[in-house]
Amino acid sequence: MQSKKKKESLGITALYCRLSRDDGGDMESNSISNQKKLLEQHAKSIGLANTKTYVDDGYTGTNFNRPGFQQMIDDIELGFVSTVIVKDLSRLGRNYVEVGKYTDCFFPDRNIRFIAVNDMVDSDEGESEIAPFKNILNEMYAKDISRKVRSSHRLRGNAGEPLSQPPYGYMKSPENKKKWIIDPDAAEVIKDIFRMTLEGKGAETIARILQEKKVLIPMAYWQSKGLSRGGKKTQANPYKWCKSSIAKILAQQEYCGDVINFKTYSKSFKNKTRFENPQENWAIFKDVHEPIIDRETFEQVQKLIGKTRRRNPKSENWERNMFCDILYCADCGKKLWFNIKHDKEDIPFFMCGNYHGNRGTCSSTHYLRADAIEQVVTLELRMLAQCLRDDEEQFATLLADKTNTDITKEKKHLEGEIQKCTSRAKQVSELCIKCYEDNVSGKLTDELFLRFSQKYETERFELKQKIAEYKARLDEVDKLQLGKEKFIGAVRKFMQMEKLTAPLLRELIDRIDVYEVTGIGKNKKQMLKIYYRFVGYLELPSLVKRNNYRENTRKGVELEYIPNSISA
Questions:
Q1: Which pLDDT band holds residue 319 (cuts at 50, 70, 90)?
Q2: What are phi and psi of 75, to 5 degrees?
Q3: Distance (Å, rounded) from C-alpha 512 to C-alpha 298?
Q4: 446-479 vs 392-441: helix axis angle to the nearest 10?
């Protein structure tokens, strides 16, 4: 068996240096160069040669998953290292339990000599009684620093300063690092993604299109610009977009010009894992930077991606219909599903997703062919365009009267609900005070006091949420006063186009209620009720002569359109 002295002369003397922002005002004295110099001098003074330096610059002491430290551990496991020297115990780490594992178990089990120069710890001289206390103090220091950083983080976040890196499509302003400006090249990709979504394309399809066009994925794009960002950097194909990236981009409200802080949080200064924060804990600051996507378009997309979609039929030529997520059952309120009937020819159609034949509760299918709904809606929009063309002033007056009537009615309802909730909230607060007074005086037992106080606290929280929701809706209703201008603009856009497109359809129509077919034989009729964006359901009895329309939807089947209904 070789002597300990001989082993030390043969093994590596590991000089471990670590520096992080946690060191605050000690960063200069703890600089990597100063640590190296100190450790080399100490190793030389006690006759240890064959030194190798392991460095972690910019890594916190609360986490031991550091590249330099892990490389040193690997070398110890392989038997290359005989001695480990650090400046002090805090350089090894600031986690009391983890540092203790290494100094009390890991190093002794492998016959590793451990030296902390400034703390006068040397395992060859026996156990240090002061070392555990120093480790506790080091952890307390890290905890205190973490608390101060969190407090500063919270203050900056609540002041509207962006706490995260700018998302793909933005970059930091050269003049002010706290401001985001648009990155023109990436912003065009963002606009294309939102445009394709409004056209009815899914995330998988959009990802494939971007890959075929050889558009760099965000990480590859940042690397091409020389920007360092966190995330996976080992993607072999820099053009291989995935649907999760598309979904994440579509859900980012920051593209409207907003700053959103506190989306994630960490549970402890020892655990750096980020967890999703409930949305009510977010701090949202609107219109801070220049938007890439207008808010109206963003909200349309959220409606699309927020709804459950049925699995696509297994057809190579299948394409998502533009009326998906717009058609609803007039009886049960559920969305109509898009299907394709495969027999002699592919016939796309819609039917109630809640039909009892498919284990739902609706009594009828509310069957509607896709070509029929497209023809009917196109005819209806042509009629609106004709109204605008014939008498624009009267058309605008009708829209103004319609929107003003609806808005006044809803505002009155919302203001009444806010008043009721506010009044009840005041009553609940008074009841809480009375319960407390009765409990103090002995009229109410502790058990009943806890039960009532919990009940009233829950109700007060629910009332607070309702009031906030009603007020938010009231703000939205106020904005609808401008709706008629946008609606007229969308109708004008339709007048200039040869056919109806998915983006224009969603710009004009909010939803369509589909009723069940009535009558038999040639007298079959089906009612459709169209709700337009900004103005809702619209009747035009005095502005235009509404004729019945007949369209051949397929060989042998003729479709007759009557105002507010279709017949086949």
A1: low
A2: -65, -35
A3: 21
A4: 170
CB 458 within 8 A of CB 466: no
d(CA 350, CA 327): 8
Residue in the block written with tokens 């205190």: 144
Tokens found for residue 101:
């594992």
- How much of the chain, in percent, has pLDDT values that exceed 70? 82
Cβ atoms 69, 60 nearer than 8 A: no
Rounded-to-integer distance, Cα 94 and Cα 96, Å: 6
- Taking CA 176 as the corner, what is the angle to CA 175 and CA 182, rounded to the nearest 5 degrees? 85
How many CB atoms are located within 10 Å of the residue 136 CB? 13
What's residue 8's pLDDT?
Answer: 47
d(CA 284, CA 253): 10
Smallest CA-to-CA distance from 39 within 121, 138, 123, 118 is with 118
Tell me if 17 sits within 8 A of 54, measured CB to CB.
yes
Q: Quickly count: other Cβ atoms within 10 Å of residue 345's Cβ.
A: 8
The model's pLDDT over 122-169, given as tens digits with 9 standing for 90+, comes to: 998 887 777 887 878 878 877 777 777 777 778 787 888 888 889 999
Tracing tokens 């302003």 back to the chain, one arrives at 173
Residue with tokens 């058609």: 327
Query: Do the Cβ atoms of 423 and 431 come closer than 8 Å?
Result: no
pLDDT digits (tens, 9 = 90+) for 503-537: 888 888 888 988 888 877 667 778 888 888 777 77
Residue 260 pairs in a beta bridge with 284
Residues 382-405 have pLDDT tens digits of 888 887 887 777 777 777 666 666
Cα 403-404-406 angle, rounded to 5 deg? 65
pLDDT for residue 469 is more than 80:
yes
Confidence of residue 272 (pLDDT cuts 50, 70, 90): low
Domain segments of the chain as ranges: 4-153, 170-305, 392-484
Three-state DSSP state, 256:
helix
Residue 322's nearest CA partner among 371, 363, 281 is 371
CA angle 35, 40, 42 (to 5 degrees): 95
Q: Name the residue with higher pLDDT: 213 or 557.
A: 213
pLDDT at 365 over 80: yes
Nearest to 296 by CA among 32, 118, 121, 533: 533
From CA 2, how far away is CA 214, in angstroms rounded?
A: 62
Its CATH class, for the domain covering 170-305, is: alpha beta
Average pLDDT, the chain: 80
**SS3 for 346-389, per residue?**
EEEEEEECCEHHHCCCECCCCCEEHHHHHHHHHHHHHHHHHHHH
Q: Are strands 259-261 and 283-285 parallel, antiparallel or unpaired?
A: antiparallel
pLDDT at site 16: 96
Domain 4-153 has CATH 3.40.50.1390: yes
